Amino acid sequence: MEKISGIVYKYHTINSHLENLFKNKTIWHSPADSFNDPFEFKAKIIENTNPEEIRKWFESTSLNYDEETLSKLADAWLQKDSKENAAWLTKTCQDVLKKGSVSCFSLRHDNLLMWAHYGDHHKGVCLEFNVEYDPTFFKDILKVNYQEEYPKIDYIAKHKDAITEIITTKSTHWQYEEEYRSCKKNHGAIPFNPEALRAVIFGCRVDKSIIKKNIQIIESAGFSHVNFVEANSKNDSYGLDFNYIEVNNSDQEEIPGIVIVKNKSDGKEMPIKFKIKK
């Protein structure tokens, strides 16, 4: 499974849960059965009739049975109806999935649909994380693959990888999300290194007073290194522009920079100065 190195984004509504993220330095991970898409975590369990693989599967998932008992279990399994076996394995997969948890990230911070669906209709935020600052938390973050059909899973032969494949496979209808998923064994709030949060982007519909209030909350929670960015709708096309928000903080060291952009009217290049917090 493909992992990420670099920047990922997480869209979030501005609410008490977001405030807890900053104050507690934790990211919420939800159980699989709490997701709103009824097609999430679906799989087609395929039949396995290999006695040796079935025996090894019982050996890995059962108590310390001797070889004779394992062989008898495998024989009994093969004599059962294949549909009944598939139904039992499907339930086993779902039971395992319910024990784990997932939190969703994206490679995109400028997707209009993502802002509408997950950023509270552009009234929320998009959090920028650099995974290099917290390899422990982000070691379990995996790329989501998109396809037309449910993944075909031989749970008996590949049960160790089966759950990961199910978690990281979605319908092609969702491929615009360019999603990565953080997968953990426990539900709830999982601690992360605050240095991993590098920027907070406010949606284009967030009121200035709410932006100011949340900047104060974020900085007072110990995120003085974080950059604040405001999204604005473009004047002539469907898209967003992003501008750094200047925060008065005399104790914060700033690094000046210059970016070269082209003037839309005459095509001439012009320098724009900016500052980012170290």
Strand runs, count: 16
Largest sheet, strands/sense/barrel: 5 strands, mixed
Strand residues, percent:
25-35%
* Overall spatial form: elongated
Instruction: Round the mean pLDDT to the nearest integer and report it.
Output: 84
Distance from N terminus to C terminus (CA atoms, Å) equals 34 Å
Query: How many separate helices?
Result: 7
Amount of helix: 25-40%
- How are the strands ordered across the major sheet? 1-5-12-13-14
Q: Summed up, what is this model?
A:
29% of the residues lie in helices and 30% in strands. It has helices at residues 16-24, 51-61, 67-79, 82-99, 112-118, 159-167, 208-220; strands spanning 7-12, 26-31, 44-45, 101-106, 125-130, 141-143, 145-147, 152-153, 169-171, 179-184, 188-191, 197-202, 227-233, 240-244, 254-262, 269-277.
Outline the fold blueprint.
Blueprint: E1 7-12, H1 16-24, E2 26-31, E3 44-45, H2 51-61, H3 67-79, H4 82-99, E4 101-106, H5 112-118, E5 125-130, E6 141-143, E7 145-147, E8 152-153, H6 159-167, E9 169-171, E10 179-184, E11 188-191, E12 197-202, H7 208-220, E13 227-233, E14 240-244, E15 254-262, E16 269-277
Parallel strand pairs: 3-8, 7-9, 12-13
Antiparallel strand pairs: 1-5, 2-4, 2-11, 4-10, 5-12, 6-10, 13-14, 15-16
